[in-house]
Structures are given as C-alpha cells and as structure tokens.
Amino acid sequence: MASTETKTTEAKTTGAKTAVAATTGGRTTVSEGTATEAEATGLAGVEAGLDALDVVAPTARAPFRRTFVDKILPPVVATALLLAVWQITFKTVDDPTKLVSPLDVWHTLRQAWLQGELLGYIWTSVSRGLLGFLFALVIGTPLGLLVARVKFVRAAIGPILSGLQSLPSVAWVPPAVLWLGLNNSMMYAVILLGAVPSIANGLVSGVDQVSPLFLRAGRTMGATGLKGTVYITLPAALPGYVAGLKQGWAFSWRSLMAAEIIASFPDLGVGLGQLLENGRNASDMSMVFEAILLILFVGIAIDLLIFSPLERWVLRSRGLLVKS
Predict the structure, then answer these.
(1) What is the predicted pLDDT for the residue at 289?
(2) How far apart (Å, rounded) are the C-alpha atoms in residues 191 and 276?
(3) Which distant-in-sequence residues (6+ apart) come within 8 Å of 197 by Cβ?
(4) 131-134: long-range pairs with CB below 8 Å, 24+
(5) DSSP SS3 for 227
(6) How much is the pTM?
C-alpha cells in the first residue's frame, strides 16, 4: 500500500510539473509571438515613414496676403525709398543740368512710349544681347568641357580664360571696330569676347566639383566618352554651369552697352547704350536717366524671367530647395 501511495504521489508530482512546464512553455510561446508581432509592427511603421518621405505632398497655394508681404511688398518699399531719396537729393542740388527729378524722367519715358520709340530702344539691345549670348553659349560650353577634361588644354589656355574674364569688356571695343567696322558683327564680337570666358570657367568649376564616384559609376555602367559627358558629367556639373551662364549673361549685357556707347552709328539703330550716349551729347539728364533705368530694368527682367527660375529648378532637383 505504501508503495502504491508513493507511486501515486510521484505521478501527481510529475503531472503537476508537466502542467507547469506546459503552462510555462505556452506563456513563453505567447511572449515570443507577441514580441515578434511588435517588431514587425515597428518595422512596418518605419518603412511607412520612409515611404512617406519619398511622396511629395500636394502643396496648397499660398494666400495672396503672404505672397504680397513676402515677395511684392519688399521691392515696392525699396523702390519707394529710392525715389524718396532721389527727390530729396534733387531738391538739395536744385540744378537741372546735374540732376533731374523722378517726375521729369517719367515724363520722358511716357513721351518715348507715346511716340512708339520706347520698345524700339529695348528691342534693339535685347535682340543683340540674347543672340550674342546664344553664340557665346555655343562656343563656351564645348570650350569649357575641353578645358575641364584635357589636362594639356587646361594648362595651355586655362590661365588665359581667367585673364580674359577679368579684362574689362570696353577694352575690346576699339580693336573690334578696327577689325570689323561699325556694324552688328562688331557688337557680337565684343559680346563673345566678354561672355565666352565666363561661361567656360563656370562649366570648368562645375566639372571640378563632380564627385569621382559618379564618374566611376558611369564608367561601370558603360557611360564613357560622349555618353558619359552627356549623361554623367554635364548633369552633375549643372549648378556651376548655371552660375557661369548667369555671369556670362551679365558680361554679355555690359559688353553690349559698352559697344553701343562707344560705337554709335545711325545704321546700327538706337539701342539703350546709344540712347545713353545721345543724352550725354545733348546734355539731357532726363534722357540719360531714362537710358539708365531701362538698362537696369532689362537686366532685372532677364534675371527674373530666365535665370532665377532655372537656378531654382536646379536647386530643387537636388533637394536643396523645398517648396513651402
């Protein structure tokens, strides 16, 4: 009997242990399953967050009040302050041969508009400037690539390009007149000599900043030679290239104004530079300021309409400028 009771007790103890072990194992299994589910949920959340970064959320149009305060009001206030200082200075000087009032310049501009001459002045200079800049772009881009990629060419003409860029554009007007005469070819030659070095040096600077990893990756994928230049080098060097284009246009515009001021000739038409020179010859300060304001207006307009949007697109495409 004792032996039977002992066996019964051992069986109960073993069963209890087994039940405890089973219960413990079940809890352990449940705990492991719960942890696995939590980790999966966390990873899914992280993945969803990363995916959300790649999705460009639709941006609502900014209210007009914010656009007015941020973009319209500052230049209006600056212009008003400039006109106020101009008017005060005019009252102080009180000499029409030295300085005229803003109202006198406005009357001169209005008269040129009513006579149909204002747009002619602007178009004569702008058409020359843009066409000359396109010629400079066609010449300066391959020249910049050649200097950037060929060591011998860089050593040979790289310093010359830098020197030409620092040379005042007005210095090219007398030799251009002697070589080509008083015609549009002379104007375009002066523009090219002023703009090509800036465009080429800007592209050289952009190519120098391209990461060697991009070039090696391109060669690995078969982008060598002309294909590598078109698909790897030029896109990677685009920020420096755009900066060179912007500076090249500034040099083009200044070179053209210098050429029009010095090489005045009736057959060339009246551009903004020649208008400025005509005002000086006639001692007409209203015409002089009319020409200065028009030259400034065209320079600002070209920058706002062409180069600023291009620069913003390049920065935004590289994640350096985010839409608000």
Answers:
(1) 93
(2) 19
(3) 140, 161, 162, 164, 165, 251
(4) 131/188, 132/187, 132/188, 132/191, 132/192, 132/195, 132/252, 132/256, 133/191, 133/195, 133/248, 133/249, 133/252
(5) helix
(6) 0.73
